[in-house]
Design brief:
Elements lengths: L11 E3 L13 H14 L3 H12 L11 H23 L8 E4 L3 E4 L2 E4 L5 E3 L4 E4 L2 H8 L6 H20 L1 H10 L3 H28 L7 H11 L2 H9 L12 H14 L14
Length: about 280
């Protein structure tokens, strides 16, 4: 990707090295959570408490200029902002930009405790994307999906979930899952994730038009999508594939929907919910 020298987003909150804000003032529940986190991480509870006030004061102040990886995700985030602002403007709507939170190991979100082991995630309750940059190394070594566009796809996918929140899709899916069986709920989750893949592709389509993509970039993203399909992960971790337990979609489905977004660049082309098949 041709990202060097481009403007980054101001909507980045860098919590790395600042500990984790926990509700230590919230009575016995907060104390239990504090002690549990301390036991899991080996951190001194006093150290966690002492860093809480400084983390809460962190605003969306961008990233250090001497941190290439953080600068990269900031540039990608800015380009997603440009893309979705343009798409929403064409629809006569305003795009509410999300915040991307960089953290190390664990952090508190409005959706609960976020940990690196969860991978990148989006929290609709605070409209923030959470990312531990160490996931990019895992993406390359564990999943065999190297490349800067593979990393950009990860960010754009989580931003896709934000688009779903802004449009009301996430709220409707949550309500539908509450009325559904576990199997039906998983199927709804898959459709939601595949739509986020397609939205990531829509961003990639616009990024290519702006000259960000280089030869081979799209293939990097498609390899990453295939690498994190439910079937491939289940086969690696448990030796068998259980389709009814999928929550994100098969490798083939994830590749298909990412490619659809890349090829069309149309938000309307990402309707995974009324489509007859994934």
């Amino acid at each position: 990707m041709k990202w060097q020298g481009r403007t980054g987003s101001g909507n980045v909150s860098d919590r790395r090295g600042m500990g984790m804000a926990l509700p230590v003032g919230g009575g016995i529940g907060g104390l239990v959570l504090l002690l549990l986190f301390s036991a899991l991480t080996g951190q001194n509870p006093a150290d966690i408490i002492s860093t809480q006030s400084s983390e809460e004061a962190v605003g969306t102040n961008g990233v250090p200029a001497d941190d290439p990886q953080a600068e990269f995700v900031s540039v990608v985030l800015k380009d997603t902002e440009d893309t979705w602002s343009e798409i929403f403007r064409e629809r006569g709507q305003d795009y509410q930009e999300p915040t991307l939170v960089l953290f190390t190991q664990a952090t508190q979100s409005a959706c609960g405790l976020g940990q690196s082991a969860m991978g990148p995630f989006y929290c609709p309750n605070d409209q923030q994307v959470y990312l531990d940059l160490s996931f990019f190394e895992e993406l390359e070594t564990r999943f065999g999906a190297p490349g800067d566009f593979a990393q950009a796809y990860v960010v754009a996918h989580e931003v896709g979930h934000h688009v779903q929140t802004v449009t009301g899709t996430s709220e409707r899916v949550t309500a539908a899952r509450q009325r559904s069986s576990e199997r039906e709920g998983n199927a709804l989750s898959v459709r939601q994730e595949l739509q986020a893949d397609c939205y990531a592709g829509v961003w990639g389509h616009y990024a290519a038009q702006r000259g960000l993509l280089e030869p081979g970039d799209a293939e990097e993203g498609l390899r990453a999508a295939a690498a994190i399909g439910d079937d491939r992960i289940q086969r690696q971790t448990q030796g068998r594939v259980v389709p009814e337990s999928f929550t994100h979609g098969s490798s083939d489905d994830r590749v298909r929907w990412l490619r659809r977004g890349l090829d069309s660049g149309r938000m309307e082309g990402c309707d995974t919910f009324t489509s007859g098949t994934f």
